[in-house]
Here is the input.
Amino acid sequence: MKTLNLSRFILCSLALGVTLSSCTPEKRAVLKTTAVGFADQAITALDLTQTIYQIEAPKQTSAEIIEETVKEVIAITPPSNDPSPWRNVQEVEKLILANQPDTSPSELQKQLDIVKEEYRTAALLYTEVEKVDYESKKLIDDAKVSARRLTLKMYRLGKLILENSPRPLDGQRVILSEKLEELDIEYHKLEKEANNSNISLSRKAEIDKRKGEIQQEFAQTIEAWLVLNQNEKKMLCDAVFQIQKATATGVTLSKLSDDYGKVDIDIIFRRLNEVVGIASTVTGKNYSSINANFEKIKTDINNDQALKELISEILRESSPNSSAQPDQFLTIKPKLDCSHLGGN
Amino acid sequence: MPLTAADDDIKAILSEIVADLNSSQEINLGMLNNWEDKLEEILPMFWFDLRQAKKSENWALVSELRTATKECQATLNQVRVAIFQQIGVISVDNSEITQMNRIRQEIQQAIKREIVLKGMIRLIAFLRILIL
Here is the structure.
């Protein structure tokens, strides 16, 4: 009888233990969904980052490229029979390819591809943790450290672009600048000719007409330049927007991971609803709210003790002698102004 | 060989970067941002000069400017990689993925252990029925 009671006690304890440590598949499902969403948003943000950091030379049509190549190859290969410059096919190929645009990925593009892999791996962690019952709390504790690091990466990327944005469309500006130069030279040449007292009246009329046309073309080119500026700003702001969205989801993932072992699924769902609220504000693409949204994220990070501690740790790792504070790490002094792009 | 009017501008900008490099100060984010700005300023000048040299069919200059453009572009890219490393977006040694893969291995082991554990629970449940 005594043995039977002991067996019952062990079995009850085991059953109780199982109840306490498991029965949270819904919570893990919520975490997984959030983590997968975080990774998807971050990868899209990194795609946009790769686009804005892509260095693009002034565009040329393939006909222009061929025309230049023909002129160059003929010019620099004077007829010679001994030895013929055409016999070294590798050198000839170099000449032929010299004007072709370079399409190979840069070192930065390759490195950012690796960063995307980090976000994919983080999503995979939470996806795999979903299959684990009893040890899930410890594993989520491990996974959330990585998720937090990745969240801060997004934040810092947003800060970088806002404070020191690249100029992805300068290649196109070169073409416009060249056009302005041509018009400017022609205009001054005509003006000089018009000042000559020997000029006929009909030629003077012709010059005046052409000067008017040049002024118009000048205005159109300036107009095109301003459109280009606007397009570039939109590219940059779209990237920042997407980064912001991913950061907000990352902060949520951090909170939800912390809540995993502590609170009921109801609270997790409530928190998720709050987050969906923030996410929809971000999805609304109201450019004027970019700065306010980053302020909100900054407050959220400041309220998240674990994230704050991680920032201190990162600061210690990156510059042990520096006395930089988490607040300095988070403070954004934006130079990029997305506000007048409006919203939809 | 003289480049064009931009030659002096480019040299002046480059000498600022060289001065930074010669200073005893450790390379920091502010410095890197400054170099990025300078290289972003020079690169369009090289593009512009290259197009002009092609137009005037000065092929020796074209060849030189083509090399200069490539160098400038590669350096700008490298400076940007350094900036991304400095702010921690790019991990210097892929440590992030290594760490996450370690956690993944733990998860895989936990999954295996749980399959055994779940089997044991079923067995215990069966025993309980026998005992009761």
